[in-house]
Amino acid sequence: MVILNDIIETIESVAPVAWQESYDNAGLQVGNRYQPVAGAVVCIDVTEGVVDEAIALGYNLIVSHHPLLFKGLKSITGNSCVERIVAKAIRHDIAIYAAHTNLDNAPGGVSFRMAQKLGLTDVRVLDPLPGLLMKLVTYVPVAHLERVRTALFEAGAGHTGNYDQCSFGQEGEGTFRPGLHANPYCGTIGELHREAETRLEVVVPAYAQRAVTAALKRSHPYEEPAFDWIALANRWEQVGAGVVGNLPEPADEILVLERLKEVFGTGCVKHSPLHGRKISRVALCGGAGASLMAKAVSAGADMFVTGEIRYHDYFEFESRILLAEIGHYESEQYTKEIFCEIIQKKFPTFAIHSTRVDTNPINYL
User: Fold this and answer.
1) Can you tell me the distance from the alpha carbon of 57 to that of 353, in angstroms, rounded to the nearest whole number?
2) CA-closest candidate to residue 200, choices 146, 133, 134, 162
3) pLDDT score, position 121
4) Pair 287, 104: CB distance under 8 Å
5) Which of 158, 197, 281, 305 has the greatest count of CB atoms below 10 A from its CB?
6) Please, how many CA atoms are within 13 Å of residue 104, restricted to the half-sphere of its CB?
């Protein structure tokens, strides 16, 4: 039997809630995280139609990209679509979970999937997030080094880019004198003790600090292990908003625009003036990503593609980069594929259904 918390932990192993933007409200929206789940419907937006679809299928979980609840409800009277959806979900014991900007910022997330659909190569994050990394420094008796290091890795430490189990060790000598009420692993109460130790350093995601600290204390032989947490100014180059990559070969502007329309199935592609230049390097951001235009220019992109661009934004960089607006929903539609892949990789027999309800509120004439 699959429990909702199993699904949540699986999604958050790829897109931790700690990676969401400050304005967002990702996570469990409705339901009990320890309830059994029979199946899941995945969608971009939760609508009444999606809830009805889940009911018809006998599934009691909806996984969406956009949170249903961005701000608190003071009453549930059915006077708004959000209130009606919440009431119906509760009435039918359907849980609702959202992974939004945390999935946008995740490696292999929304913008990465856009790049994959366009066939871009050498793809990297356009705007890496700062303040997400810490360094743990601790001191371990040499005989216990591998045990402690393994425990830290299993708790989430030691990831650097495409590498894991990364650490640094330096041999030295530690000293301590156990007090009267101590229970020392080695040494004698009241006497100075010297111990061959390794200074062990590992990089840790800030959200894993508590788990890694607990793993250190469980695995370390000392009653009072010494350790320091150091906040790093480094940006996490694999985590952040938007991506930039290269087309397999340079192409005419109009051909790339037509390709966008085909791949994302949009009713139209709004764009800035054409300049007759070849497009080689493309920056992308799912959803409303106009704030990244300057980053795209700095990254040497010939074109920036996103879901929404405001009117006045088109004036700012019109001669330096080709801007293309493909629609918010259209830019994020393949997020449903990401959800399916994440869940099915861990639970291959779990029932999961990509909604057939068209939740795009924008139509084209």
Assistant:
1) 9
2) 146
3) 97
4) yes
5) 305
6) 26
- What is 299-316 written as a DSSP string? TT-SEEEES---TTHHHH
Cα atoms in the 13 Å half-sphere on the side-chain side of 67:
20
Q: Where are the alpha helices (DSSP H) in 21-132?
A: 48-57, 81-91, 101-104, 110-118
Please answer whether residues 150 and 280 qualify as being in contact, where contact means their C-beta atoms are separated by less than 8 angstroms.
Answer: no
CA distance 225 to 240: 34
The model's pLDDT over 160-219, given as tens digits with 9 standing for 90+, comes to 888 999 999 999 999 999 999 999 989 899 999 999 999 999 999 999 999 999 999 999
Q: Token pair of 66, please? A: 């956009």
Residue 318 clears pLDDT 80, i.e. is over it = no
Dihedral (C-alpha) 276, 119, 113, 58: value to the nearest 10 degrees? 120
pLDDT per residue as tens digits for the range 211-221: 999 999 999 99
In 3D, which of 151, 169, 175 has the Cα closest to residue 226? Answer: 175
Beta strand segments in the chain, E: 27-30, 40-43, 61-64, 95-98, 121-129, 133-141, 168-176, 193-205, 227-231, 236-252, 270-271, 278-285, 303-306, 322-325, 352-354
Tokens of 35: 């309830």
Here the tokens at position 79 are: 């006077």
